[in-house]
Design a protein that fits this description.
InterPro entries: MethylDNA_cys_MeTrfase_DNAb, RAMA, SeqA_DNA-bd_C_sf, WH-like_DNA-bd_sf. One of its GO terms (molecular function) is DNA binding. The protein is an alpha+beta fold. The chain folds into two domains: about 50-145, no CATH class; about 155-260, Winged helix-like DNA-binding domain superfamily/Winged helix DNA-binding domain (Arc Repressor Mutant, subunit A, Orthogonal Bundle). It is about 40% helix and about 10% strand. β2 and β3 (about 100) form a beta hairpin. The radius of gyration is 23 Å and the shape is elongated.
Length: about 260
């Protein structure tokens, strides 16, 4: 096999060393295993690896999300493989790790995915956060977007969001994007807040095209099929699942609701 020389950072080299089997692995073999290119070795190591005791694991890849409040230790994670008919459950472990049902701790979502399924899987995309209904990748994108914006420690926007939604007229609806522009927040941040907080008329916040968000779920009291309620409120037509664009409140109309 032809080998080529590449330069890597000191941080990456230390990471590779930490995952190497002493006196056996090379940089090449470790990278193959981490990338899922050596399936037999991946399966063998996953089967033999003992669970790491709580409290001795370094910070895992989820720690920034925990620090930002997007995840909490103990939150349930799930990977449902529909085509294979199997579901894997895990939870956010200590120090931003992922803990499997058998107690094993993993520093990264991909490491946990390899342990339960073998092969090469995009861990950030396959694991979903049950409380928010979002993938870990989506939560990470929210964090990155928030870091690109000026820090705002005020919770005023939450009370303003609650106020404007409570004042929506009969038949009117709005979108995550319009509310984001109104309140100066990232639409995904709004979506996460609405998916974890019981707020009047939160179900009338739709996608920009007038469709119900695929991740929508009731918070608190289950009010049944949201489409039935939206039709009763005049938001959706009696036949169809797309709201009338003319009933979408403009940004100016939303501002007026806040001022009243």
């Amino acid at each position: 096999m032809t080998m080529v020389s590449v330069e890597i950072s000191e941080d990456l080299y230390q990471y590779i060393q930490k995952h190497a089997v002493p006196l056996e692995d090379s940089v090449d073999s470790v990278l193959k295993r981490l990338l899922g290119l050596d399936k037999a070795k991946v399966a063998a190591l996953a089967a033999e690896a003992p669970a790491q005791p709580s409290g001795t694991t370094e910070h895992g890849a989820l720690q920034p999300l925990v620090t930002a409040g997007l995840l909490n230790e103990g939150d349930e994670l799930r990977w449902h493989r529909a085509k294979k008919g199997v579901t894997f459950d895990a939870k956010v472990g200590p120090n931003g790790t992922i803990e499997l049902d058998d107690g094993q701790l993993f520093e990264s979502p991909s490491g946990a995915a390899v342990a339960v399924a073998g092969g090469n899987h995009p861990g950030w995309d396959v694991w979903s956060h049950l409380r928010s209904g979002m993938t870990l990748s989506q939560l990470r994108s929210m964090l990155n977007s928030a870091n690109d914006q000026p820090t705002d420690l005020s919770d005023d926007w939450k009370s303003q969001l609650k106020m404007v939604l409570s004042r929506l007229p009969h038949g009117a609806w709005t979108s995550y994007g319009d509310l984001g522009r109104l309140l100066g927040r990232n639409p995904r941040e709004l979506g996460l807040h609405l998916s974890t907080t019981e707020i009047t008329n939160a179900h009338r916040v739709l996608q920009h095209n007038g469709r119900i968000s695929p991740g929508f779920h009731w918070v608190g009291t289950d009010r049944g099929d949201v489409r039935v309620l939206l039709r009763r409120e005049g938001v959706l037509p009696q036949r169809g699942s797309v709201a009338d664009p003319s009933q979408r409140l403009s940004l100016e109309s939303l501002r007026k609701l806040l001022q009243h």
